[in-house]
Amino acid sequence: MKIQGKLKRLLIAITVLFLSFATGVAGFMLIEDYQFFDALYMCVITTSTIGYQEVRPLSDVGRAFNIFYILTNLAIFAFVISTLTSYLFEGELQRIFKRYQIRKIIKKMKNHIIVCGYGRNGFNVCQELDRLKIPYVLIEKVESHLQNFRVDKYKQAILGDAIHEETLLEANIKEAKALIIALPNDANNVFITLTARELNPNIFIVCRSSEPSSEKKIYRAGANKVIMPEALGGIHMAQLVVKPYIVEFVDLISGLDEMKLKLDEVRLTEIKPEIKHLSIKDLQNDIDCEVNIIAFKDKEKGFILNPRSDTQLSEDKVLIILGTNEAIGRFKQKYLQ
Question: Which positions, given as ranges, span the membrane (predicted)?
Fold first, then answer.
């Protein structure tokens, strides 16, 4: 629910209370010819049920009006008190203020990732993004699922349903670079993909599919990649038996092994101007370079594995490098802008 919706009940309570006092003041002034302050005093002692003596004895018409005013305000006063209690003592006002702060932080985020759903798949996605320290916004509609989720400078969370356009806008989808949809319902995933593609035509969308028949529909909706976790899990289990060393190597270069090696990509559009004339050999021979360039992607030829050492760097290439987190960090700090 948006902040405006949460404040609606409070605004209604304040408006009803104001109208009640306005009606009472007008009634006492017209019927009993009270001055404004005397009429307001009568409204306060009547509404609060204190029972002080009237300013002066009421006429029969004034008593009839007062009876109507008392009975009406019993319900109004109960509604106002319950509303104020929920906001002041049950933490509703604090939750609204916290959500307002989160919205301000998310509004400033750029090139972040949006994750839809915090179930089993969404949880693992967030764990990996946490490990890589990549900024992201999580959207989850079940409040209890977010009890153990802790926000920090890299991650924020929104309580809402991603199928609603306003929720995606609240996650600042127009400034996001990628969207990961990890929900179990394929129909909802198609709808979210369509909405996201309309809001941000350039966003990279990775979507989960539970049924093979939904894969083509999700692609047609605008997804860049469709993942079926159950199928991947089955393939992985078979590979563990048939090709255990390959799986072990893949785990090694995925950062899951104790050596903490990982693959990373370096876009040469971000490389420093003074080294754009260098070749792969020049980078590999640098004594400070502790990463291996195992491939690059060419705009026309696609991926080139084990590239020639005399390959010149150019902005249309993306290097695939292998190394520890520390080595990759030093490489980027030295060569990237």
Answer: 12-31, 67-89
Task: Write the Ramachandran bin of 332: left for phi over 0, alpha for psi from -120 to 50, otherwise beta.
Answer: alpha
- Collapsing DSSP to helix, strand or coil, 311 comes out as coil
- Alpha carbon 140 to chain centroid distance? 8
Rounded alpha-carbon distances, angstroms, from residue 155 to 107, 190, 269:
13, 25, 27
Chain CA centroid to CA 109, Å = 11
In the sheet that 204-208 helps form, which strands lie side by side, from edge to edge? 155-159, 136-140, 113-116, 178-181, 204-208, 225-227
Domain locations along the chain: 3-88, 106-232, 260-335
The backbone torsions φ and ψ at residue 135, rounded to the nearest 5 degrees and listed phi first, read -65, 135
18-69 tens-digit pLDDT? 888 898 899 889 998 888 988 888 888 887 777 677 777 888 888 888 888 8
CATH architecture under which domain 3-88 falls: Orthogonal Bundle (1.10)
Task: Supply the pTM of this predicted model.
Answer: 0.65
Q: Give the CA distances from residue 41 to residues 49, 106, 286, in Å, rounded to whole numbers and listed in that order.
A: 12, 48, 86
Distance CA(262)–CA(242), nearest Å, equals 24
Q: What is the pLDDT of residues 273-328, one digit of tens each?
A: 777 778 888 777 765 667 888 888 887 788 888 888 888 877 778 888 888 878 88
Assign domain 106-232 to a CATH class: alpha beta
Q: Of 84-93, 103-112, 184-193, where does the model show the most confidence?
A: 184-193
Residue type, 199: L
- Alpha carbons 96 and 4: distance in angstroms, whole number: 9
